[in-house]
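Standup notes
- DV: blocked on the single-chain target, sequence here:
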Amino acid sequence: MLQLITGAPLWVWPLLALLIFLGIKSSKQRQTSVKTAYFLPFLGLITINGIITLPNPSLSWSAFFLVYALLAGAAYHLQKRWVLARDGDQVTLAGEWFTLCILMTQFVINYASKAINAVNPDLYTNPVFLIAFASVIGATSGTFLGRALCIIRG
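- DV (later): unblocked, structure below
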């Protein structure tokens, strides 16, 4: 178990710290530029590298895109409670812990995927694992598209 922590690349820990910082920052009401909404879907797609490396790409990508689209729509409606106001090119967002949960889920699922591949390659190629992993990545990534659409559509 200790090997999971000590065997991680050094860059993982500053990334984790940055994600925690961003998640905590989003727990407070804030104003931001509407232009940042255009980049939110790309934040969610950072984890795409985890999908690219999976075996059985047709299964993995199908699960990813299906759940991505479903959660983008659901998150669009969910975000309405956190998008408080839009004034020109500025948007006021309520503080929420949802962002931290999504960022941590993305981090943990990607980290777990790499660990599973190293420890149990047979599990890593199992269709149930592929669908579950791609679905979690699709769900978390889709929430960023949902937020962006909610901000852009005002």
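- Follow-up: The beta strands are 30-33, 83-87, 90-93.
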